[in-house]
Write a structure and sequence with these properties.
disordered N terminus; mainly alpha; two-stranded antiparallel ribbon; 13 helices; single chain
């Protein structure tokens, strides 16, 4: 084992490739985590600002119930700041006020806080450690699903399970829709149920930067990363024009049509 490690550290060709691979994986993971944390904090701060304004804004009476609508109009140049999203950021802040403790010293200047805000009270070390772990492990899209859960105990359950299983956003959504929390409450052997749930669970990739929120945050469009499925969707969205371009004799029957030739199944896009 020691000889193997020693050979990897040698500055020969294999050692060179090994070092570059390590550097790439480590720094790419750090960059991914930093972007995800920054996006989460940005959205939390937006929610914080909205609440602060609603409490202390000098001209808040002029906007009243149309505050978010007016904000969305004025923030058209910023990613994901429509009326619906602004409301969700507000809810995000309401449910996770303890995130304030995760704001870096460099970003503290973005928090013109006063002691009058009851949400900014003292947070227990255990709670602070828990929220820091969560922020560094999941994306903002995970948080959106957590925010949709009204019951605090249920939300904490999915947070813990998501961390343990390293669930992707799609997996978290699937587990919520399958009533995993409710099934766990009715199950005698909860540990076995958890093991079964995670056996087939889809884990998030160490690089989950393809989250659509991330693309918007970075000023990119998800469509710029053209995948086969996206190309297919684009063709289907314009199927009439596409078929006319092909000429006479073509028709559309199904998406990914299965046909049997001999004893094998084939799929026609």
């Amino acid at each position: 084992m020691s000889n193997d490690l020693h050979s990897k550290n040698k500055l020969n060709f294999q050692g060179l490739i090994h070092r570059i691979g390590l550097a790439h994986n480590e720094l790419a993971t750090q960059a991914n985590r930093a972007v995800n944390v920054s996006l989460t904090l940005r959205n939390w701060l937006i929610g914080f600002y909205i609440r602060e304004y609603q409490l202390k804004g000098s001209d808040r009476a002029e906007y009243g119930k149309k505050l978010l609508e007016n904000m969305a109009e004025s923030l058209k140049g910023l990613s994901n700041c429509n009326k619906r999203q602004l409301y969700r950021y507000q809810c995000f802040y309401d449910l996770y006020p303890q995130i304030v403790g995760t704001v870096s010293a460099q970003s503290k200047k973005l928090l013109p806080m006063s002691n009058e805000n009851p949400k900014m009270g003292a947070v227990s070390p255990q709670s602070q450690q828990s929220i820091e772990k969560l922020i560094n492990a999941v994306s903002y899209s995970h948080f959106e699903l957590f925010v949709n859960i009204d019951n605090e105990t249920k939300r904490a359950f999915y947070e813990a399970e998501c961390l343990q299983g390293r669930w992707s956003v799609r997996e978290l959504k699937r587990q919520i829709n399958s009533l995993y929390y409710e099934r766990s409450g009715l199950s005698v052997d909860k540990e076995k149920l958890s093991q079964l749930a995670n056996q087939s669970a889809e884990s998030k990739s160490p690089l989950f930067i393809r989250d659509p929120y991330i693309f918007e945050f970075l000023g990119l469009k998800a469509k710029e990363v053209m995948s086969e499925s996206h190309l297919e969707d684009e063709l289907l969205a314009n199927i009439e024009d596409f078929l006319l371009e092909l000429g006479h004799g073509f028709c559309f029957e199904a998406k990914q049509k299965s046909i049997l030739i001999g004893d094998k199944h084939y799929f026609i896009g």
